[in-house]
Design goal:
This protein is mainly alpha-helical. Helix content is 55%, strand content 7%. It has two domains: 57 residues; 73 residues, no CATH class. The protein has a two-stranded antiparallel sheet.
Length: 165
């Protein structure tokens, strides 16, 4: 009896090995397992590396010149035009932190020296200083609205000793 069952199993195995359907199913299972293994490797094992590369590739910084055209009124008269201008900005908190003295008058003198050097460099290159901000600090330590252009000497810091106290 066991011999009969064993013979039938051998015949079924031989038939299955000769069948094209079984061969196709085995090939499908092997290829599916290879694809699932590769997907696991790419998503789980190497996923963070690919995410970083993707983020670097989608970020792009581009500088675009923001020039506008001339602006005319309805009669063709020029209202506004483009003129290239540069600005120099001084971060006073950074400059003040580099000055070692605690006396306000010495700090003001050092700041005035730095500002005078910057203005001299700008003017030595043929550029002009436009200082028409319109608000000045007068000798009494109060801010004043000044409607005319401020001369270069007024641009320098003029803080009074009263402001310190």
């Amino acid at each position: 009896m066991f011999r009969n069952i064993l013979d039938r199993l051998k015949e079924a195995g031989a038939y299955l090995m000769q069948s094209r359907l079984v061969t196709l199913i085995i090939i499908f299972c092997v290829s599916s397992s290879i694809l699932i293994g590769r997907l696991f490797y790419l998503q789980i094992v190497k996923g963070s590396d690919y995410l970083e590369n993707y983020e670097y590739s989608i970020r792009r910084t581009t500088s675009v010149a923001a020039t506008r055209g001339n602006i005319y009124d309805r009669n063709g008269n020029l209202l506004a035009y483009n003129q290239l201008a540069y600005s120099v900005t001084i971060n006073l908190s950074t400059v003040e932190n580099s000055i070692t003295t605690d006396k306000r008058s010495e700090k003001n003198a050092a700041l005035n020296k730095i500002l005078d050097q910057v203005l001299s460099i700008v003017e030595s290159n043929g550029d002009s200083v436009v200082s028409s901000f319109g608000i000045i600090l007068d000798s009494s330590g109060t801010y004043q609205l000044h409607s005319q252009a401020i001369p270069k000497s007024s641009v320098l810091l003029q803080m009074s000793m009263e402001k310190e106290q």
